[in-house]
Amino acid sequence: CVEGDNVDSIKEDDYSLHMEIMRQSKSSCLFEMISTFNIVLIANHKGLQKNPRKSDAEHRSIITAIARGDGPGAEQTMYEHILESRNVLSQAVRQEAEQDGVQDVRN
Questions:
Q1: Over the stretch 77-107, which tens digit does the pLDDT of each residue have?
Q2: Measured between alpha carbons, how far is 89 from 98 in angstroms, rounded to an integer?
Q3: Cα gap 69→13, rounded to integer Å
Q4: CB 51 within 8 A of CB 5
Q5: In the predicted model, what is the mean pLDDT of residues 26-31?
Q6: What is the Cα–Cα distance from 63 to 66, expressed in whole angstroms?
Q7: Are the CB atoms for 48 and 7 separated by under 8 Å?
């Protein structure tokens, strides 16, 4: 739950929530996705890339699906949440690289 503007507390809560959901899910797919992209650790290291209130709303949707016993809904919502975070982080990294004069090697 996002309350106030304590960024360190928000980052810690975000990390804890993601790790607890992953642990409770026992989902190899979720574990592989988070482990492969290291999205939670990278995002928390780089700083909050997404609006904390938007992220909080997404977290609440995930928790609601879990509480309803809607595993597929929770998995889909979590996947979308992590994918969006990854995209936001990727964009931030590209912008930083452009500011540093690094060429996009994918082209």
A1: 988 988 887 787 778 778 878 888 776 655 5
A2: 14
A3: 23
A4: no
A5: 72
A6: 5
A7: yes
What pLDDT digit, counting tens, does each position of 40-65 carry?
666 666 555 677 788 888 889 999 99
> Which tokens hold the place of 2?
């996002």
CA 50/CA 29 separation, integer angstroms: 23
Exposure string (b/e) for 28-62, b if CB count within 10 Å is 16 or more?
A: eebeebbeebebbeebbeeeebbebeebbebbebb
Q: The tokens of 13 are what?
A: 């809560």
- Token look-up 């928790």 returns 63
Q: Tell the burial category of 103 from Cβ atoms under 10 Å away from its Cβ (0-12, 13-18, 19+).
A: exposed
